Amino acid sequence: MNVISTYKYARISAFKAREVTREIQGLPVSAALDLLAFTPRKAAALISKTLKSAIANAENNNNLRAEALVVREAVVGEGPTLKRFTPKARGSAGPIRKRTAHIRIIVTDEIAIETRETRKPAARKKTGAPKSKASPKTAAPAETEAPPAPEPAAETKITESPEAAAPESSAAGTANPEKGGE
Fold this sequence. Notes:
The chain is of the alpha+beta class. It has helices at residues 14-24, 29-37, 42-62, 116-145, 150-159, 162-169, 175-181; strands at 2-10, 70-78, 82-87, 93-98, 101-108. 53% of the residues lie in helices and 21% in strands.
């Protein structure tokens, strides 16, 4: 059964509050409350208050156990904006927008409890797909690394040339720079 709790006209930007609600979706309510307790943002306190209200609604109105509840949906919509003005230079005025938000949280007991640890491998699989696409790109540089291996072989052929063989026949290693100078 779905239980809804709404916090209307919360004095926070919807953009800032959505950042926190994204983190609690799909979590059990106990894990969501723990996460919100240690999130150092104003939005976390407002969302925590709304989540506690949803849990209380589920326990008192629908006789549901709090341990079985999961955050099904956490949505933040924009509310009305309070428009104010501040004085600016040369007698002009600059706008101030005091934004509000409507926070809606839906908890349910119909979804199986899923922890963050079980969600992380799914996220890694999604990021793994681009890496597999990148692996053919990395295979191409590996192929480009193969041609430099024959280059040292070409250098050894140069040292086997008659000019390079002549210094090897001389006893002193200093004779090589002298012959190169000729």
